[in-house]
């Protein structure tokens, strides 16, 4: 044991300059990530006042928030919108990546890649505004419907369509980015495998099924888990595209936390909600990691 410690210290001493270079990064994460996280957990057990010292209330914030129907519905909304967006983006991105890979003309390939990736570069302020106009009473969709004498639909006030609109627009924005991740893995596959498959007269569909998809499994698993990490973090989209008519259907946990913590300055409730969201996310990720352990 002592010999192992000596060996460890020897290695630390040997690479001390590397560790010194890492120190600013570690300090950054400690100050701006882990310290606020710890402070947030502490505040979730307190009644934070605008002026004066905070009052320790124990589990009261957690009991209060779990009785709040708005918070429970925000968890359900966040899960439905989050998982729906992730699954649609995941499947669509894979299809787009496979389709781009099959293109022979490099110029067309670059145009499609750039076009599909562009929505990811824009903020939700821009993307939300575009879709609000497209789905508005005088927008593109209702204009097309007008040619067929169809009744105008107020898409952005229909609560039955609210979650579906969030899922579709969210997927539209994220497809290009995820497709590039898949495409990078496809390009990295050993070309000798495809040559061997062609010698064996394997069709292109069979090559995709037997070579590309199995090689993509680690990337697919990693991308899926990274997507799950942001399952309940949808804020920009619902804040920009939401309105009083549909807010009950699209309010996510982060929007609920914003409304309580920033708008009403109910910090204790907001931080308790944050901790619950963090724990839910961790539980989901641990379960998925366990199920996908062979692909990671």
From TrEMBL:
Pfam family for this entry, one = BPD_transp_1
Q: ABC transmembrane type-1 domain: from which residue to which, for each copy?
A: 75-288
What keywords were assigned to this record? Cell membrane, Membrane, Transmembrane, Transmembrane helix, Transport
Keyword hit for Transport? yes
Q: Which domain of life is it from?
A: Bacteria
Classification via InterPro entries: ABC_transporter_permease (IPR051393), MetI-like (IPR000515), MetI-like_sf (IPR035906)
Q: What is its main location?
A: membrane
GO BP term, example: transmembrane transport
Topology in the membrane?
Multi-pass membrane protein
Provide the Gene Ontology terms for cellular component: plasma membrane
> Sorted alphabetically, which CDD domains does this protein's record hold?
TM_PBP2
Annotated transmembrane regions: 20-42, 71-100, 121-141, 161-190, 211-232, 267-292
* Protein location: Cell membrane
Family classification: Belongs to the binding-protein-dependent transport system permease family.
PANTHER family listed in its UniProt record: ABC TRANSPORTER PERMEASE PROTEIN (PTHR30193), INNER MEMBRANE ABC TRANSPORTER PERMEASE PROTEIN YCJO (PTHR30193:SF37)
Q: What is this protein called?
A: Putative aldouronate transport system permease protein
Q: Which organism is it from?
A: Ignavigranum ruoffiae
